[in-house]
Amino acid sequence: MRAKLAASLTVAASTLVGMPADAKTLRWASPTDITTLDPYAHTESFTTSMLHHVFDPLVRRGRTLELEPALAMSWKTVKPDTWRFELRRNVKFHNGNPFTADDVVASISRILDPGARARGNLATVVKAEKVDDFTVDIVTNGPYPLLLNDLAGIYILDKEWMEVNGALKPGNIATGVTTAASTNAIGTGPFKVESYKPDAGTTFVVNPDWWDKPQHNLTRIEFKPVKSDATRVAALLSGELDLIAPAPLQDLQRISSSQGFKVIEEPSLRLIMLSLNFRPELKAMPGQKNPLLDVKVRQAMWHAIDLDTIKKRVMRDKSRNTGTLVAPPVPGYAKDNDTPLAYDQSKAKELLAEAGFPNGFKTKLNCPNDRYINDEQTCVAIASMWAKVGIQAELQTESRATYFPRQDRGEFDVSMVGWATLPPMDGFSVLSSLLTEQKDGYGGSNAGKYSNPKIEELTRKAAVELDEARRRDMLAEALKVARDTVAYIPLHQQPVAWAVRDGVEVPQFPDEYVRLWFATVK
Amino acid sequence: MFKVLLSRLGQAALVMLVVSAVSFVMFRYVGDPVATMSRENASVEEKAELRRSLGLDQPLVVQYGRFLTRTLSGDLGISYRNQRPVTELIAERLPATLELVIVATILSLALGIPLGVLCALKPDGVAARLVQALSLVGISTPTFVTGIVLILVFAVSLGWLPSFGRGQVVDLGWWSTGFLTISGLKSFILPGITLALYQLTLIMRLVRAEMIDVLSSDYIRFAKARGLPTRYIHFRLALRNALMPVITVTGLQIGSLIAFAIVTETVFQWPGMGLLFIQAVSFVDIPVMAAYLLFVGLLFVLINTVVDILYAVVDPRLRARSA
């Protein structure tokens, strides 16, 4: 014990004193922590973004989120269901092992294991086959256009290391299965994990042998989860942190007015919208016909929402109003689709009267109060705007922990949903999860039971369309139908706001990933 | 004597059983872990499968039965959030919380007793009145406000002390301590004061009241009549007698300091058990929440049982009554 104490004291002392002069450390905090170091054991986007510093996928997202070669140099489809990848040569894992086709095959087989929590992230892949040491075939269960999008989130592990450490089988945070990979990360990425202490902090050091030319100048990253908003901001302002992500909206003013700090912000991919109940009856009006089944009523509800006021008062001018269900960078987005119905109270009243509800109707409005930015306040505003045209919304807000299970069970009439099309970053995810009926694995989040034959058809066609231009047209067409029929009422695009001290340059991305291999500090 | 012990232990076990049942039933209402654990575009089948693999599709009674048998065999389950055994998580966080509580207790005793004596000896002095007024503020300000004000003053404005975390820690076997490094010691100051403040005012007021009581007793009057030095009377005779209830209260308060360090730990991102619990609540991490409540229940039951037994040892009347 004494020896151990002495040893740790020496370590402590050396980390304090022994820093090289050109060491560039970035210290940062976010409210959540890394769940596990095993990339296949979870489906959480924050953990995925953190592990990207340690691992590389076959293809990755570049500075403008375009897909670009990473561990794969090039690819082509040899058959509609078979993609051939040429792998990068002279790449080494953090433990010195060379990267080859065997690692790709072992990694893909590992995530295809039914025990892998992230199995669904590569749902259409059947197997990976080695062609030679630097060529791999990936076989899907049919033509599948989004394979590269999916692969951008699948990190490659070292086969040899997994064999030696008994980690060839994946971990799973749901079933509690852990392996050596849960607490050790050996990848090919720009940083190596130096220490991982759940809830206390994770330290990364630069990988000098990274295959890519670094665009960052960091030698070390110190990450700490800090849950309380006020503490996170205080730690930045007192100089203990260089970056906080996210920065709480209510503190942005204060941070940017402080000497030596700045706020960086950008619209995120996450769109906030209202989900509507398409069942025969509303929960608020049992025994009567559901007014929401009439498209005029849905249009009236949209016309009655003053998005500009919400933007200005609730979102402090940081959001962007939207008329469609995907953000501009996402495939399927069409500019013509993206105009919200104008705020017009008399038009709303007129439409309600035409639909046979001249005195309005009653509905429930449910919202989370800790999931999206200013979610509760947004709903309070909407309820009062609807009241002006006679729609009496009974508002109930609650924590995400109880809200989402209830939404899944279909207990709501009108409720708030946020959708970022992640991880694939493609409009198809809106079609397949929000706009289709719940069958064949589709419609997972279609809690309101919206259904439209045209969209069903387009979704199934787009799912197998390999021609990218035609596929995007199908997505855009389906999203136009969704807008015309008011499948959801889109509200706004959420902002991503971070705060840094002067001298720290970190590019922001609409998918809210923190990509520190693009960061520089002075 | 043996009989007393036995009945006390029986009662303790009963209380623990009730605590476990209450905590387990409560979790039906805090939410569904499936929602926080699923990815955004998970299909209905995927969510059902997850629910099955967590055993959440079983009736509540079956779930509770499993929970109880597992707990009795020492297995508190695996955290949904950290995917590590809950016993391991608690053992890892215990040092942080205990060290903070030790610091807070020492602070509150070291300041509370002298201030209480001061107020008792010179009840009309300016200092005593000032201390009394401040203690009112201390007892009525919520912990999170105190914490945030301290952070703003000492970390943000003055930059003297760290605003969060434990600083550099040193591992002594499984115990990680912050007492051996400068940054670790500095990190204790703000959360220590925040946690100690309520305790401090409580002890101060208790000492003051007891001292005033003791000072007017015959015992002290006779001591004065004997011409003993004032210092001796105040500190050797009066204070000693006044300290008995202080010791009892301090002991009992340690339990609640551990249990209610939650707020302080959240404000200062102190990686102890309270923070573990808060994070478990927001993630609906049922195994961790259940284990934490059991642990806190056990702590209180243990402290009270020990106190009860000690009373029986000290006071023969109690022994006779319950026998």
Describe the structure.
The complex is a heterodimer of chains A (522) and B (323). Mean pLDDT of chain A is 90; it is low at 1-21. In chain A, the strands form 4 sheets. In chain A, strands 1, 8, 9, 10, 11, 12, 13, 14, 15, 16 and 17 form an 11-stranded mixed sheet that branches. Chain A has a 4-stranded antiparallel sheet with strand order 4-5-7-6, covered by helices on one side. A two-stranded antiparallel sheet of chain A has the order 2-3. The two termini of chain A are 41 Å apart. Chain A contains 15 helices and 19 strands. Chain A is globular, with a radius of gyration of 25 Å. Chain A is α+β, with helices and mostly antiparallel strands. Helix content of chain A is 28%, strand content 22%. The radius of gyration of chain B is 24 Å and the shape is globular. Chain B has a two-stranded antiparallel ribbon with strand order 1-2. Chain B has helices at 2-26, 33-37, 44-53, 60-72, 86-121, 126-140, 143-157, 182-215, 218-225, 230-259, 262-267, 273-283, 286-314, 316-322; strands at 170-172, 175-177. With 323 residues, chain B is an all-alpha fold. The mean pLDDT of chain B is 83. Chain B has a domain at 90-284: MetI-like fold (Orthogonal Bundle). Chain B is built from 14 helices and 2 strands. The longest helix of chain B is centred in the first third of the chain and has 36 residues, at 86-121. Classes of the chains: A alpha+beta (522), B mainly alpha (323). The interface between A and B is large, with 63 and 59 residues.
